[in-house]
Amino acid sequence: MKRSLQYLFKLLQAVVLVTLFSCVDTDERPNTPTGNFEALWHILDEHYCFFDYKQHEYGLDWNDVYNKYKVRVSDKMTEGQLFEVLTDMLSELRDGHVNLSYSMDYGRYWAWHEAYPQNYSDTLERRYMGTDYKISAGINYRVLDDNIGYLRYGSFSLPVGEGNLDDVLIYFALCRGLIIDIRNNGGGDLTTAERLAGRFVQEKTLVGYMQHKTGTGHSDFSAMEPCYLEPSSNVRWHKPVCVLTNRSVYSAANAFAAWMGTLPNVTLVGDHTGGGSGLPMSSSLPIGWSVRFSACPMYDAQRQQTEFGIPADVPAAPTDEATAQGIDPIIETARKLLTE
Q1: 126, CA 20 to 30 Å: which among 32, 50, 253, 280?
Q2: Is the distance from CB of 110 to CB of 116 less than 8 angstroms?
């Protein structure tokens, strides 16, 4: 049966929650550094969703990781020392959705964007956007002087309503094309991403697949469930679109880029996205620290992993010379494509 993305997200969240809380080791571990180390390693071992993929990509061996970090843990260590060791262990997963948090710190892996050029400038964005741009919920927008619409959506954590999208698209109705700039969009609500993407499909479209864990083994997954993007019943866009991406496009924004990339009138312009295709879930350690991790893998329409991001259709990047002249080559590349 064909199911919408929103339905699948809710279904998988329910499945993962049931699986997580019904399958966690019933042997309560002590609130000691050793006990917390064991609890964290086993939570990930039983519920993390990318072990097989990352073993193939860069040789990750979770058992070797256990042996590597076990010797660094002592029941005489401080909480700060324990937090450092556990965060280092989680960084072996190379996953921005894997975090360890407590009141004093937030353990994270951000090399998915920190290790690459930013390919985005607030100063250049202000130059293109000007001061008289329009604001609708989480969207900033204006018409550029070549009659190209420019829409900037910096975070899908900022919701946008159907009425907002109607007004924005009607405002752009006479434009020859549309630029959607999601650079530095670290994600947020998948429902918000789906609501926006639905304005650019004209019929129910296969945009990817999802799975959920069915057991505690690294390879225990359900069959791939197809994900379909439903066309909005409100105002839709039929003209060419360029979606601007960089390495800081992550999670729900990465999914949005993957969905839009399946559409015939859409071109991804800029840099490779950052990735983050695992639906995240949370658990806790005996000490009370919260751990978040990827629990359900998402794939593109060709059943390929997008955990490490997706390439742009047309690569483009800023240069020092262009920046000095107040020019953003990523935006200009999109404008050229849309005017041609």
Answers
A1: 253
A2: no
Around Cβ 136, how many Cβ atoms within 10 Å? 17
Rg for the chain (alpha carbons), in Å? 22
For residue 198, give every residue at least 6 positions away whose Cβ sits within 8 Å of its Cβ, in sequence order, or none.
Answer: 229, 230, 231, 232, 236
pLDDT at 7 over 60: no
Report residue 77's pLDDT band, with 50, 70 and 90 as the boundaries.
very high
Structure pTM?
A: 0.92
Distance of CA 228 to the CA centre of its chain: 18
List, in order, residues 6 or more apart from 58 with CB less than 8 Å away: 94
What is the tens place of the pLDDT at every residue in 263-275? 999 999 999 999 9
User: Rounded CA gap, 334 and 339, in Å?
Assistant: 9
